[in-house]
Amino acid sequence: MHYISTRGNISPIPFREAVMMGLATDGGLLLPARVPEVDRATVSTWQDLSYQELAFEVMSLFIDDIPADDLRDLVERSYQPFRKPEVTPVVEKGDVHILELFHGPTLAFKDVALQFLGNVFEYQLKSTGGKMNILGATSGDTGSAAIYGIRGKERIKIFIIHPHQRVSRIQELQMTTVIDNNVYNIAVLGTFDDGQAIVKKLFNDIDFKKQFSLGAINSINWARILAQVVYYIYAALRLKQSGSETVDFAVPTGNFGDIFAGYLARRLLPGHIRNLVLATNENDLLTRFVTAGDYSLSEVVHTSSPSMDIQVASNFERFLFYLLGEDPEKTRERMELFGLNGSLHFSEDERKEISSNFLSRSVNEKETLETIREFYKQTDYVLDPHTAVGVGGGLSLKEAGVPMICLATAHPAKFGDAVEKAIGRPVDLPEPLRGLESMESRCKVLDADVDQVKEYLAANAAI
User: Fold this and answer.
1) Residue 58 CA to chain centroid, in angstroms?
2) Which of 224-228, 238-242, 360-364 comes out lowest in average pLDDT?
3) 214: phi > 0 → left, psi -120 to 50 → alpha, else beta; which?
4) By C-alpha distance, which of 198, 397, 423, 385 is closest to 305?
5) Alpha-carbon dihedral sign for residues 222, 315, 189, 418
6) Dihedral of the CA atoms 198, 199, 203, 208 (nearest 10)?
7) Residue 237 phi/psi, 5° resolution?
8) DSSP assignments along 413-431, one per residue
9) Average predicted confidence (pLDDT) for the chain
10) How large a percentage of the chain has pLDDT more than 90?
């Protein structure tokens, strides 16, 4: 299996090289040269597998340059820290099923991919003797999950950018209280989109990228998408065991990465996954794309689901590539146009193709809190605000007779203020979140300026 760029200007590369490249050197995003076909006989053998066994089988379809025994070991080590033996259990609550993705070290779905990615990075560097500087931007959960996946690892330093005072207090502390010598937290005076733009500019500075061996942990890294594909298949097959031939998924998303993983999972499991409900908060760029063919920037709105307070979806280009018939020249032209104008519009035929792949609903702040409140009253189950966006969107588009699986992307205690406002009581803190306020923390505050970040990284990088 080789990987190509959505913009077409790199030679096909194997998985291990794709992981280390992160963002393609032509500015595009990496995708497999082909999406594997999985027959029904193979799917039937997956039904009774453990999460780790399934992860190995799915990842093996896309990874052929890591020996099987080594890949099994990477998978086993990546999911050993999870607090549930199922890794991502599915629980039925009220009219929906909840896919719990928050049982990893930092209580967020990002752990599923970033524990794996951190181990792959370490594996690669041990074999090559190289060093690496990971650079990423976070709207909340990616940062802490990446830090926990990398902390203490040899040959790697990690630099995480977050928007200053625009993540939850617990999210901030989960990042800044990790003071290992290879961890650097940067708070920029701006939005997540500002931080993400800085990261992309530095990765597109090819000389700087090569000089400091920059690696990507944001969902622009293909390995993150691949790891997330697994839990869609796992959840769909768990319900199939209960007699449900097809399922729908509701996915809270701002960056398009998680739902793009669902799109690929559906391609691997034709006939098993039906609708993908793309749920956004008031930052509704992606909902406007799905429902009106309008992908246009607007002002970022600060909400109780900050990980979705995004107006530039970094994984959008991957789906755009497929939407445009896997034509890299057209993809490059559209992305360049978006860079100039901040908007894209789509033809009637393109809109039909979009709507054949996704349903969408924007859930505003009032509806989010109401969903948390009502769901708690009805089921005694507490949703975090991001999950509530997915549940709200999923319930509004649920069809009778088809199970709706809603992705629970974070533990509610990570957003205690919003949840307490909704249900009228504090959320019990799980063990990993206790005592953070009293711990030493470390963070560098900078302007949202690419040169300032570049200078800070250069002064502290592993070289």
Assistant:
1) 18
2) 238-242
3) beta
4) 385
5) negative
6) 70
7) -75, -30
8) GGGHHHHHHHHSSPPPPPG
9) 94
10) 86
Task: Mark whether 377 is an active-site residue.
Answer: no
Q: What is the pTM of this model?
A: 0.92
Question: C-alpha angle with apex 205: 200 to 207, nearest 5 degrees?
Answer: 145
DSSP string, 116-169: HHHHHHHHHHHHHT--EEEEEE-SSHHHHHHHHHHTT-TTEEEEEEEETT-S-H
Residue with tokens 């979705």: 308
**CA-based nearest residue to 106, from 136, 134, 140:** 140
Over range 68-84, report the average pLDDT.
97
| pLDDT tens, residue by residue, 37-60 | 999 999 999 999 999 999 999 999
Q: Which of 110, 157, 200, 240 is catalytic?
A: 110
CA distances from 240 to 44, 108, 275, 400 (A): 10, 26, 16, 17
How far, in Å, CA of 413 to CA of 336, rounded?
Answer: 40
Report residue 442 CA to chain centroid gap.
25
Structure tokens at 138: 């976070």
- pLDDT tens across 334-368, in order? 999 999 999 999 999 999 999 999 999 999 999 99
Length of the chain (residues):
463
Q: Note the pLDDT of residue 276.
A: 98
Q: Pairing relation of β-strands 343-345 and 214-216?
A: unpaired
| Residue pointed to by tokens 């990446």 | 146
Return phi, psi of residue 73, to 5°: -65, -40
Contacts (Cβ under 8 Å, ≥6 apart) of 220: 22, 23, 29, 314, 315
DSSP letter for each residue of 206-242: HHHHHHTTEEE-STTSHHHHHHHHHHHHHHHHHHHHT
